[in-house]
Write a structure and sequence with these properties.
This protein has about 70 residues and is an all-alpha fold. The chain is about 35% helix and about 0% strand. The protein is elongated. The mean pLDDT is about 75.
């Protein structure tokens, strides 16, 4: 997700499409979205929540991380 526009040199003028042409990334399942993150991230989070993608994940055990 980026608000950068390659026409003005942002993103170092390197899009996923260009990186794929160099063989640096595989874009089979990836997309570049030119949008403001504050409007797009809630949509992505809502989609993940309603697809119940989180149900199969193990709950984090934060107490192990902090040694308690």
């Amino acid at each position: 997700i980026t608000v950068a526009d390659v026409r003005d040199g942002a993103c170092s003028s390197s899009t996923l499409k260009e990186a794929a042409s160099w063989g640096k990334v595989n874009t089979t399942h990836e997309q570049m979205v030119f949008a403001e993150a504050t409007t797009v991230v809630p949509l992505i989070a809502s989609d993940a929540y309603h697809r119940e993608a989180w149900k199969g994940r193990e709950c984090p055990r934060w107490n192990k991380l902090f040694g308690k």
